[in-house]
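Posting for a labmate who doesn't have an account.
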Amino acid sequence: MYIDTHHSLSQLASSLLPLPPTSQSYLLSLYTLTLERDALLSQAEMHADYRQQSCERQYELEKEQLENEYVKARNGVKATLLDRIEERRKRCREERDALDVVGESSSPQHSRTSRLPPRLRAPRRTRADAGRPPSATFNRC
């Protein structure tokens, strides 16, 4: 019994030594290993595809969230700037109306430049500025 088994195994070994891929018993024993390997490879490929799709989906969600935050922040800044501009216009109108009222009550001969707030008026010329053109006087700081 053992001698027959040993003889069949030694005959199989001698047939596998020259060309193992052509032996039917060798190919049959590798078939299960090949199936397991293919299953693992397809599983690894599916897992890699899943991770890539997950990363792309997460990227798109974060991108959309950041774009929404950007739009909200931009609209907030725009609203703040428009409010400040409107406040400044209102203040300028109030100053202009106050200067109109003061100018009409004190003397009707005031020029238009006297009704402007001091920060908008051109600087007055002094004797030191007499030789310079008016533009040079206006641009000094």
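Reply:
Got it, the structure tokens are right above this. Residues 22 and 83 are 86 Å apart (CA to CA).
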